[in-house]
Amino acid sequence: MQPFRFIHCGDLHLGAPFQYARGMSRSVDRAVAEATYDAFNNIIELAVRERVNAVVISGDIYNSEDHNLEAQVRFVRAMYQLWEAHIPVYMVQGNHDPAESWRAGLAMPDNVHVFSDTQVQRFPLMVNNIEVGGVYGISCGHGNEQTNFASQYKAFERDEFSLAVMHGTVGASLGSEDHNITGPCNLSDIMQGAMDYWALGHIHKAQVLSEDPMVVYAGNPQGLHRKESGPKGCYMVRVAHNGHCELEFIETSEICFEEIKLDIAGIRTESELLELLSNKKQSLRKRHNKNTLVSVNLIGTGPMYRLCADEAVRKLWLRETQADEKSKSTFIMPYRMTNKTRPAVNLAERRLLSDMVGDYLRAYDDTVTDVDAVRQILVNRPESKRLGGYLDLLSDDVLKRVMERSEMEGVTVLMGANDEH
């Protein structure tokens, strides 16, 4: 078999809004508006520069709830760039851009092969005008599909190399809280397809689930929020004459996300805290040399607790550190600042005292026993009906944070401004 190379990418989410990062400065607004497009352009430029034999896109080109016509127009233009470079494209549609959502009706160039949403389809895999195998895929038709797509794949025996493209949730990814389950399957289903490489989409973290056969999530080329930190990009896949695949991960993101912690232990003045924040930003600037959106977590115990706990003060600090970045060519922009600090209080000792604080903590222990108990308290309140579907957003993690905060907030109020013993 002739050796060849292809790019595996997916979950482009072109034009996805970064609403939480808007309005801080013109440079940030421009950067976040173009981030997903720029990351995809980096993939297109890589494909043309390296003269790859194919580009494989494993779904979610854009977000269908927006019916983003600009994203569709830009995508088709990119496909014409690949057409001019004689690079074929094989793509499935995902749960965010199912077949029914492509309303623009824009004509794709004939180098683009879009898989059917009714059954697994095969296109010839051509290398230097010679068929070396097949590319197999099925698109999502109506959003979050519950069909086991993987069980429908079966390679032709004559294939020297079989490449499967699929948008779905595989194995351990079934428990991911950040992604809706679509096309659920297990590795055992995948193994039965006799494919050499599975180009997966849907999970936004690049990962190799299996090496024989290769089962790979490319992740997304541009992180969309603070939980999508770390390297983002695509895979360059080199296939040897014997079918062996060598993967190279290539970063493509234009903006990265970071979380930093500022420990207030030992800090006694506001200026010391802001200097620590400035030093953390400089460290990030040296490490990334790339536009970065930063979530700042204030942690620890110390005399700065009361200032950190005040939302108006945190907003002031945030505005000031944002203003410092407006003139920078590459920004390290804090966009949120959360307080996880605690006053210097020994809660175990306070629970034993016969005062209002001790009474409060003992009542707290009797009532707030675990996450399920807190959830039941909320559900039983008549006000919960007003929340409607938002009740589903109260995850265990959110409720744990509420529990921790309520314990400390009550103690702080009852102790008064000067009691820190």
UniProtKB/TrEMBL annotation:
<keyword id="KW-0378">Hydrolase</keyword>
<protein>
    <submittedName>
        <fullName>DNA repair exonuclease</fullName>
    </submittedName>
</protein>
<feature type="domain" description="Calcineurin-like phosphoesterase">
    <location>
        <begin position="4"/>
        <end position="205"/>
    </location>
</feature>
<dbReference type="Pfam" id="PF00149">
    <property type="entry name" value="Metallophos"/>
</dbReference>
<dbReference type="InterPro" id="IPR050535">
    <property type="entry name" value="DNA_Repair-Maintenance_Comp"/>
</dbReference>
<dbReference type="InterPro" id="IPR004843">
    <property type="entry name" value="Calcineurin-like_PHP"/>
</dbReference>
<keyword id="KW-0540">Nuclease</keyword>
<keyword id="KW-0269">Exonuclease</keyword>
<dbReference type="InterPro" id="IPR041796">
    <property type="entry name" value="Mre11_N"/>
</dbReference>
<dbReference type="GO" id="GO:0004527">
    <property type="term" value="F:exonuclease activity"/>
</dbReference>
<dbReference type="InterPro" id="IPR014576">
    <property type="entry name" value="Pesterase_YhaO"/>
</dbReference>
<dbReference type="InterPro" id="IPR029052">
    <property type="entry name" value="Metallo-depent_PP-like"/>
</dbReference>
